[in-house]
Amino acid sequence: MAGIDDTYIVHCAQTACDFGMRASMLVLEESHGVFLKNRAQITIKDCKAENVICFGGCMSPENPSTIEAAKEIARDVAEQTQMDFEDQVSDIFTQESEDGKKFMACYGECEPEIVSVEWDKEKEDVYVEPGKKALIG
């Protein structure tokens, strides 16, 4: 019996982001023509941001949209209280999880970003298309 490490990744596979508001899915705009249980097979070359549905919102301290959301809150508070603390906003809104990861205490717009040219777990002996190995979990 195949283990979870041998699971093929297909269209609509669930995915998550440590900074997202919710789980999401991997999708393909166009199938490669290979299907597993009526789902299009994903290859390691399908590593593109447009193949990831947004995670609803983003708490990454590196996301400009999240930083701007925090600054907007700071401006609203400054306007209401006549106190200016916009320059201190990243310290105020940045929190740390138990495992040491930093995240913002507010959400910005989620725009999935992939920093690799291909996924890193491939099935060595299975090709969906020439030069495109099957992605596994």
Description:
It is a single chain. The protein is of the alpha+beta class. 17% of the residues lie in helices and 20% in strands. The protein contains two helices and eight strands; from the N terminus they run E-E-E-E-H-H-E-E-E-E. It has helices at residues 64-81, 89-93; strands at 13-15, 24-26, 35-36, 39-40, 94-96, 102-104, 122-129, 132-135. A two-stranded antiparallel sheet has the order 1-2. The chain has a two-stranded antiparallel sheet with strand order 3-4. The protein has a two-stranded antiparallel sheet with strand order 5-6. The radius of gyration is 20 Å and the shape is elongated. The mean pLDDT is 83.
Keywords:
single chain; 137 residues; alpha+beta; two-stranded antiparallel sheet; elongated
Distance between the termini: 15 Å
Summarize the biggest pleated sheet. Answer: 2 strands, antiparallel
- Output the number of helix runs: 2
Average pLDDT, all residues: 83
Fraction of helical residues? 10-25%
Strand tally is 8
The secondary structure category is alpha+beta
Strand order of the largest sheet: 1-2
- Beta-strand content: 15-25%
| Shape estimate | elongated
Secondary-structure element order, N to C: EEEEHHEEEE
Rg, Å, rounded: 20 Å
